[in-house]
Write a structure and sequence with these properties.
- The chain is of the alpha+beta class and 200 residues long.
- It has one domain: Butyryl-CoA Dehydrogenase, subunit A, domain 3, CATH 1.20.140.
- It is built from 6 helices and 6 strands, in the order αβββαββαααβα.
- The protein has helices spanning 3-25, 58-70, 86-93, 96-127, 141-165, 175-196, and strands at residues 31-33, 43-46, 50-54, 75-78, 81-85, 172-173.
- A 6-stranded antiparallel beta sheet has the order 4-5-3-2-1-6.
- α3 (86-93) runs antiparallel to α4.
- It is elongated and about 60 Å long.
- The N and C termini lie close together (5 Å).
């Protein structure tokens, strides 16, 4: 494989890394839990920072929000789906599992956004010269190398820390988690391919 083809492939992989990571960050399905209908438990999903409960109706959701309001907790309804931040549950109810989940989510959020920022830098470094823009030409080669390794590395680190910090529970990993894993692997694979694969 010649250098030009390798650069195109690795840039494409980094773009995929960036897109998947962004989609994952705005998704509400990092964790998925099916409720027990016999006990009236609703289905639940979770983003890194917020819990979502699928209630029976919009009226039930509004009533539940009113209960949370009485407890000085901020919750919202979108139709029959109720959302409330894990940090709210932690602060107001002193729930250890909620506090652990909130801490895990915040740690992963920071790592994921750092990884996304580094992936964006890598994509811009590759794309801008093609458009005749030399704004990033003054960056040292080492900075580009650090950014490329950090893109996938920070995402994977965030996911590992998130999984370790999460409390034990019945929730399973959702689609967003798998997208984030693929994003991190793609970012690392792109950099490894560009670094270690020799030109023919």
């Amino acid at each position: 494989m010649d250098g030009e083809m390798r650069e195109k492939i690795t840039m494409g992989m980094m773009v995929v890394c960036l897109v998947l990571a962004l989609v994952a960050m705005f998704s509400t399905s990092w964790l998925v839990s099916e409720g027990d209908e016999s006990e009236g438990e609703p289905d639940a999903t979770s983003s890194l920072t917020t819990m979502y409960l699928e209630l029976g109706s919009s009226e039930e959701c509004d009533g539940t929000v009113a209960v949370y309001d009485a407890m000085d907790m901020e919750a919202e309804c979108d139709g029959k789906e109720l959302s409330i931040a894990w940090s709210e549950v932690c602060d107001e109810m002193d729930d250890d599992d909620a506090c652990d989940t909130a801490s895990a989510g915040m740690t992963a959020t920071i790592c994921m956004w750092l990884g996304i920022g580094m992936a964006l830098v890598c994509v811009l470094m590759a794309v801008l010269p093609m458009a005749g823009v030399d704004a990033m030409d003054n960056l040292p080669e080492m900075a580009g190398m650090i950014a490329s390794w950090a893109a996938g590395g920070m995402m994977i680190l965030g996911l590992i820390l998130w999984k370790i910090m999460l409390p034990d529970g019945d929730a399973s990993m959702g689609m967003a988690t798998y997208m984030a894993i693929i994003a991190g692997v793609m970012g690392l694979a792109s950099t490894a391919m560009n670094t270690f694969m020799a030109d023919e």
